[in-house]
Amino acid sequence: MNVYGSMDRQALDAAYNNSAAVADSDRYLADWLRRSEALRVRMPDHLDLVYGNAPRAILDFFATNRTGAATLLFFHGGYWQRNAKEGFSFVAEGPLAHGFHVAIAGYTLAPEATMDSIVGEARTALRWLHQNLATLGGHPARLYVSGWSAGGHLTAMLMDEAAVAGGLAISGLFDLEPIRLCYLNEKLRLDVAEARRNSPLLNLPARAAKLIIAYGSDELPELKRQSNEFGAAWRGRGLPGQIIEVAGCHHYAVLEQLAQPDGLLAKALAAVAAD
Fold first, then answer.
1. Separation between Cα atoms, residue 43 and residue 54, nearest integer Å
2. Which of 13, 38, 164, 192 is the most buried (most CB within 10 A)?
3. Phi, psi at residue 70, to the nearest 5°?
4. Predicted structure pTM score
């Protein structure tokens, strides 16, 4: 029996299983953790800054040496139910090389947190960072937001915030209805209403800063469809943005394009900040 479009439950589960689709995904995660630990040793001055009340409501701030620099707030992936900020510090390397401060945020995971509360924590992190940027050496008017996979979803959800100067959503999820209908919902426990109110595709802002929507050419078709449909709706609403398909990258390799100083997405982010 079909549960979403032409897909039965088995096909839909496979359509969103990035770990199964990328045979060496564990190798990527292990390498990211190693690089993240090394960066945290080199730059230990502003780790585990508390932005909220929950144990995971903390962020790490990696400062560039430029006064009044732009800041990138990044949210990790893991389908809102796994991973932690400590494994994603490595992402800061690319933006740091382009003169950004970088904040890597943690957030409470499902099933402990609902989607409503996860999005709420992301908003709290953004607002806390905006309020404290001057103290940390950043420029409050130059705050950008990014994230990968589930973090791409959180990025899109925050684009209605006045404090956001621009965004980069990498391999995001923008319509949560298929998420509600597949294996991922065992921990998320989305109902129809919660999925709808937390779907960026269905809640486009009236006004927003420029949003880059990026994905890899070798990603699962459903991930590519999500980005393209959201990008078309975003631009159809008259909102500023662009879609970037990164050639030769699967779901994990595409994040390297932000983490590497010469990566396509690191350069795209720098170009947005320079506008």
1. 24
2. 164
3. -70, 155
4. 0.98
